[in-house]
């Protein structure tokens, strides 16, 4: 199966957004063993979209569309495809119901144009939209397949993962399975990780090992083609073992997990509760911990202590610490971690203080970060980081380092 | 002049990188008044690249290529174009010299394949590469223009800005500019907003008005083509005024701003400081406020009060409030807002309490949210929301609603 991804939206052609949907879908199609030969972006213009469809049909047998499924007059992807393929648009009752329910729930007024989103190509398989209103579609005609996905990545990605992937998998003629496992690493750069395991990557052909850099972390995807799931898993286990012998200390989890999820699980396993005192991260660590359903079982709360006054008055950092060591210091991090655990009454306190940027602070360069970890019954520890990113990246990596350090500590218990 | 941007590189089709070059060049071409009708991405494959060139020539008269100018065997953009146009590749002495100098400076050995980068299409105008080795090219043949740019954005962007832009400008017969302005709205859905201004959208042809849904917010893009920047701005002002008469209450800012940025600015204008008490949002509001450089001038800190104990013990919510009203209540939101302002010692306290999901709480359905706002010298207010999203969306929209409500309050001061 050869694929072309067609993104529809004038905002792409005006450069207002990048075509990240094409990137996401390409990755997923690669996992399915489907070759992607072209990406196309076209505006909200039916004549040019039709032209793009005709060109794509001349060279690919799977056409994946993103965008143009919304309620407004600009949104015309399915209308254009319907016209081109000679198909009718019909109301999908389930989608219509779910759109109506959305407006009932949010007590907002439903306008007539919202109904348009429940129109689908006749004879298509519906891909439910669990994060928005417009359903996706999958259609087979002649020797070709057409998949229609919404434009917003927050709707498109979960829809593709939950329904699009399977719909394609069922159509693949080969009975060879593609089994893949993602290993997630933190605290090691992509190029260093690749250097450490380069010989493994080069000598492997089945399974293959592919590194991929993410947001401040690195993942390795091990992919095995085999007609037996069991045998594929065994081959992947072997590859994983060889990788862990080299870089196991940086591994933290599999597939779609996150550091915050792994940390929550580990806290739950030990029956421990945690609180946080955040200066430079400004609530980011707590935000990530509480984004997990059921967070309240392990996370109680914390303090964002952005100013020196809050550090002193709410978290009782000693006046002499601020005068002598400054707030960007090991001593300050230790007091913050110990005192927030006392204030919030938790087993563990974690603290973040440092310089996010763009300006230096107390003579410390941007990227200087201290993370304090206080675990009941153990001496409080502090890790110092020197990060090289901009403000946002420094904040985000600090929060992740905190999760990683604590996770590794708890795994030793 | 109608343009198509052709990105060459298998890494795009494998989803390893996003096509940010197309986005960058599109923005620049829009400024020049050049319409971009298509983006194409194609792999490092001469046959398919030739196919893409032929398709592009059938519908555009400016073809901008990125990628495939490097030293390796995979890099074949100029070779393919040369073959297609019947042009020779010749050594550009300046480029060759600059490549040799690079290796002298970096004390590395120059391999033979590096010379290949100094080969250029005969008769083309050279676009110097001030940040790398491969020069760009600009070529006119018949009624068409061909621009070849390197793939790495760090080389491509400065080359386009310094040399590509001017080369195109000289060829433009019209001096028409495309001026656009983005208006950002919150608290109104995309379809309702469109319904309110549908007649304006439909009757306008210059400027045009186009809605775009973002993450929990809606934007309108007003775009005007005109040979005078001043007149374009005046026409945009007029359209904006008509829009504001209908939906001005939901407007919060222009272009690339965010609610948090506008709120920070407004707080700064009034010389007011703020703190936050966050239950369901778990630090998200504070995270967004502190992500802005210089946040400390208006934001002092706050408390994440995820459990009832933290609400009572740290933020002094009354026991009878929790017993009688529950934590998902107006009374709890009011006490949290007032008490966090006292604890952190700020002019304003804002609070978030409610049910993010997936489970209901105290008999309240998922999406029930109370936002308390305490402004020094004014009676504390509370807004109730009923949101219809999943956990993450409910948290994110709650934080944004808080920013929006407070921004609107401050604008009245």
TrEMBL record, chains A, B:
Ranges where the MoaB/Mog domain occurs: 4-170
* Pfam families, per database record: CinA, CinA_KH, MoCF_biosynth
| Domain of life according to the entry | Bacteria
Q: What SMART domains is this protein classified in?
A: MoCF_biosynth
NCBIfam families referenced in this protein's UniProt entry, alphabetically: cinA_nterm, molyb_syn, PncC_domain, PRK00549.1
Query: What family is it from?
Result: Belongs to the CinA family.
Q: What is this protein called?
A: Putative competence-damage inducible protein
Gene this chain is encoded by: cinA
């Amino acid at each position: 199966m050869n694929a072309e991804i067609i993104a529809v939206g004038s905002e792409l052609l005006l450069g207002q957004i990048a075509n990240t949907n094409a990137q996401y879908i390409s990755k997923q199609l690669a996992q399915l063993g489907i070759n992607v030969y072209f990406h196309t972006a076209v505006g909200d213009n039916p004549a040019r979209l039709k032209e793009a469809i005709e060109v794509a049909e001349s060279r690919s047998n799977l056409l994946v569309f993103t965008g143009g499924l919304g309620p407004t007059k600009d949104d015309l992807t399915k209308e254009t495809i319907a016209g081109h393929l000679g198909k009718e648009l019909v109301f999908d009752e389930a989608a219509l119901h779910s759109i109506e329910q959305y407006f009932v729930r949010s007590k907002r007024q439903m306008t007539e144009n919202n109904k348009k989103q429940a129109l689908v190509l006749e004879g298509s398989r519906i891909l439910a939209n669990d994060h928005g209103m417009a359903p996706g579609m999958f259609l087979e005609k002649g020797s070709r397949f057409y998949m229609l996905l919404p434009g917003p990545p927050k709707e498109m990605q979960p829809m593709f993962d939950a329904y699009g992937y399977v719909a394609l998998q069922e159509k693949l003629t080969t009975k060879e399975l593609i089994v893949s496992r993602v290993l997630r690493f933190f605290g090691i750069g992509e190029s260093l990780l690749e250097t450490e395991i380069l010989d493994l990557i080069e000598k492997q052909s089945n399974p293959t090992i592919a590194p991929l850099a993410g947001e401040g972390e690195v993942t390795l995807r091990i992919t095995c083609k085999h007609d037996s799931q069991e045998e594929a898993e065994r081959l992947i286990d072997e590859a994983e073992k060889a990788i862990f012998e080299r870089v196991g200390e940086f591994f933290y989890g599999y597939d779609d997990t996150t550091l915050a999820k792994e940390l929550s699980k580990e806290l739950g396993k030990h029956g421990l509760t945690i609180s946080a005192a955040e200066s430079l991260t400004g609530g980011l660590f707590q935000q990530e911990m509480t984004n997990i359903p059921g967070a309240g079982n392990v996370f109680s709360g914390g303090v964002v202590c952005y100013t020196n006054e809050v550090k002193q008055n709410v978290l009782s950092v000693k006046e002499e610490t601020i005068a002598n060591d400054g707030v960007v210091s090991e001593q300050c991090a230790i007091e913050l971690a110990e005192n927030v655990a006392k204030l919030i009454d938790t087993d563990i306190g974690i603290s973040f203080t440092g310089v996010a940027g763009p300006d230096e602070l107390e003579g410390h360069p941007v990227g200087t970060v201290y993370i304090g970890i206080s675990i009941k019954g153990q001496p409080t520890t502090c890790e110092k980081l020197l990060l090289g990113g901009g403000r946002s990246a420094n904040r985000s990596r600090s929060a992740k380092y905190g999760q990683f350090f604590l996770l590794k500590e708890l795994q030793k218990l």
